[in-house]
Task: inverse folding
């Protein structure tokens, strides 16, 4: 599965399908365009709640879309969420999800999916290395 995840294949279907191209040459019919991406090492886990290494995170970022994303300069921007607000002194985050958010099989992505993922990460049985990042009460007091 890691090898499959490491290769992001984008089949764009040739629009010309054997017809003359602008350069006057005939194109190869229906040959897909393939993007191969190197990750530099073996991911430790493709389980989003158990991944702890950079190789895993690189693949998981390609496989899943979070509530938010970040731009190259580090700004937080909407992804699956269209907007959000922070309430109760930073203890409650309320997200509005995109209505067109879908899993790869076409099923709608719901708030319950995100809640289940957060709860699983916080469950001690999962042994998530990122669990402390989700807890508001573990911030050391100054």
Result:
């Amino acid at each position: 599965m890691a090898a499959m995840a490491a290769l992001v294949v984008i089949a764009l279907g040739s629009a010309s399908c054997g017809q003359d191209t602008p350069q006057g040459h005939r194109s190869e019919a229906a040959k897909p365009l393939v993007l191969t991406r190197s990750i530099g090492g073996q991911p430790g886990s493709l389980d989003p709640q158990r991944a702890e290494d950079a190789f895993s995170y690189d693949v998981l970022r390609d496989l899943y879309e979070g509530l938010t994303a970040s731009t190259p300069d580090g700004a937080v921007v909407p992804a699956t969420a269209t907007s959000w607000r922070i309430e109760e002194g930073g203890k409650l985050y309320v997200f509005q999800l995109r209505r067109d958010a879908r899993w790869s099989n076409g099923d709608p992505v719901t708030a319950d999916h995100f809640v289940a993922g957060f709860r699983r990460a916080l469950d001690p049985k999962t042994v998530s290395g990122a669990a402390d990042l989700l807890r508001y009460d573990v911030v050391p007091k100054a």
In short: The beta strands are 68-70, 76-78, 81-87, 92-97. The radius of gyration is 20 Å. The longest strand covers residues 81-87.
